[in-house]
Design goal:
Largest sheet of chain A: none
Order of helices and strands of chain A: EHHHHHHHHHHHH
Radius of gyration of chain B: 20 Å
Shape of chain A: elongated
Low-confidence stretches of chain B: none
Number of strands of chain B: 9
Order of helices and strands of chain B: EHEEHEEHHHEHEHEEH
Strand content of chain B: 25-35%
Distance between the termini of chain B: 42 Å
Radius of gyration of chain A: 21 Å
Distance between the termini of chain A: 34 Å
Oligomer: heterodimer
Number of helices of chain B: 8
Chain lengths: 295, 252
């Protein structure tokens, strides 16, 4: 039989020694073709049955933005600049974070059959869910930029509000992905131990939703000096706020002063995200074999 | 090519499972923690101090009663589990006929599933392209290739699973009771494929209760009893002894 340059060719495992996280990373890299294939699989499952495919899948988030805009305009403090443009980045980035966490929490359980049949580095499963959701997010991001350019109601936000701080968007997206992946690793592990992780996670995410600037503006939070630093130490809120403000200028809200870019809090959040990813990955790697015995 | 090296080596392999009688929900786990009732742990030894070496090209059967560690042995070989003690080495590409329809995506067509599974086995798209007709023909699903797999019968799925695994050109093939799937004609085709593998020098590991099947393909048999290797020798010797025990009659 011919020999292959394939990742699964030949192996030795011993009971006493474990591979280091660095070796695991190298192995994940060798399996990149499988990652690509599984991402394609997930994208096909996601968009196949839908009429209009990708655009149709933006609808839930857009409906959210429409309803919240309406509520805020009608019942809450109405900022001068119009709220929908400010809601789009928040809701889109939140959806990316939420879906990545929910999907990666399920990734081990959903692929259990496959994992029991053939060897591959288990750590690629949460990575696959991250990449799938990232691609989906990029589509909504592009949609959002178009919206800023042609904004049908009121004046278009772009190009006049497009500034160099826009570039911050990319490290912020990356860190949001790191945070989601790190938490996803922990939750994927917990999901092999307990059956109600998804249920609890849904409830928890619903609570976290209120800590991001959806029903209120950042200016209103900043108007309370006792609350603002605590609020921004939550990496999810800080990253989402940093994302919104990298795209758009400060808001004019009655009774508040316009907010400077929260550079420090975004930097802290990025640091936290990297630490969470490292922790999540190491814990996942340590328990990946016993996980297989529980699936 | 390292012809002289063994295809499979087991060196003093022990596999223990920790059975934790734990709560399956976070809610009750927290409650148990509050009243300080830690989970009971129990150690279960599935395989104890197993050693053997298999040279390339040998076909090895595994016999023994249910629950004695045969499946654990296959899972260790497939690198699904990791040994508690000892060392396992496998040289070459492994294909497993463990759960034939595992990894199929019901919403996908047969065609798409062949690609997905092929890549999971480590084939490139070009390699799969070159073989897709053979695979479909072997599984006998030429006409249903563009149908979603969820409309397949269970027999068709098993045939497709076998066909894909059979076409990845493995160096080591793991077979678990799958010779019992499908109709007589398909079983015969599976046997022929296994014999073809043998001729090509593939190392084959078969777990089965079907002694007739083992007699047909195996060179050597491992007999597992009480989680230990009871006997390891040429096929006729081991099977003759095994047949005299009540274990052998367990499955007809």
């Amino acid at each position: 039989m011919p020999s292959h340059s394939h990742p699964t060719v030949s192996f030795t495992v011993t009971g006493e020694t474990r591979e280091t996280p660095l070796e695991s990373l190298r192995e994940i890299w060798r399996f990149r073709a499988l990652i690509v294939e599984l991402v394609q699989r997930d994208l096909r499952i996601r968009y196949k049955k839908r009429v209009g495919g990708i655009l149709w899948s933006l609808l839930p988030a857009l409906m959210q933005v429409a309803i919240i805009s309406l509520i805020v305009q009608l019942f809450l403090t109405s900022p001068a600049g119009g709220i929908s443009g400010y809601l789009l980045p928040v809701v889109f980035l939140w959806e990316f974070f939420k879906n990545t966490i929910l999907d990666s929490a399920q990734s081990m359980v959903l692929n259990a059959q496959l994992a029991r049949k053939i060897y591959f580095p288990r750590a690629i499963l949460p990575i696959v869910t991250l990449l799938t959701n990232l691609l989906h997010f990029i589509i909504s991001f592009a949609f959002m930029l178009v919206y800023f350019l042609v904004k049908p109601v009121g004046n278009p936000l772009y190009p006049q509000h497009l500034q160099t701080k826009f570039l911050l968007v990319f490290p912020i997206i990356l860190c949001m992905g790191f945070l989601a992946l790190g938490l996803g690793y922990l939750l994927a592990y917990l999901s092999t131990l307990y059956d109600d992780v998804r249920f609890l996670l849904n409830n928890l995410l619903q609570l976290v939703y209120y800590t991001i600037p959806v029903f209120y503006t950042l200016e209103q939070v900043a108007a309370r000096p006792g609350i603002y630093p605590i609020y921004m130490l939550n990496p999810i809120a800080a990253l989402i706020a940093g994302f919104q403000r990298a795209l758009l200028p400060p808001l004019k809200v009655a009774g508040t002063t316009p907010l400077d870019y929260p550079t420090m809090y975004v930097a802290i959040a990025c640091g936290v995200s990297v630490v969470v990813l490292l922790l999540g990955f190491v814990i996942f790697e340590r328990s990946k074999w016993t996980m297989m015995e529980r699936l | 090519m390292e012809i002289l090296e063994n295809a499979i080596e087991f060196e003093h392999v022990t596999k223990q499972f920790t059975l934790i009688h734990r709560e399956r929900s976070v809610k009750s786990a927290i409650m148990k923690l509050l009243i300080w009732q830690p989970a009971r742990k129990e150690l279960f030894t599935a395989l104890e101090d197993i050693s053997f070496e298999i040279p390339p090209g040998q076909t090895v059967g595994v016999v023994g009663k249910n629950g004695q560690g045969k499946s654990t042995l296959l899972s260790l070989l497939a690198r699904i589990y990791r040994p508690t003690k000892g060392r396992i080495t496998v040289r070459g590409r492994i294909a497993s006929l463990l759960e034939l329809s595992a990894g199929f995506q019901p919403e996908f067509t047969g065609y798409e599933n062949i690609f997905l599974n092929g890549v999971i086995y480590g084939m490139t798209h070009e390699q799969i392209d070159a073989k897709i007709e053979d695979i479909a023909a072997f599984a006998g699903i030429n006409d249903q290739l563009t149908q979603q797999v969820k409309h397949y019968s269970s027999g068709m799925m098993a045939r497709l699973g076998f066909a894909i695994a059979a076409h990845v050109e493995p160096d080591v093939l793991l077979v678990d009771e799958v010779l019992a799937v499908g109709d007589a004609e398909f079983q015969e085709r599976c046997f022929q494929k296994i014999e073809e593998f043998k001729r090509h020098g593939v190392t084959i590991f078969v777990v089965s209760h079907d002694l007739r099947a083992l007699r047909r393909v195996c060179d050597r048999v491992l007999w597992i009893e009480d989680h230990k290797l009871k006997m390891d020798g040429p096929m006729p010797e081991v099977l003759t002894l095994y047949e005299q025990t009540p274990d052998a009659i367990e499955v007809g």
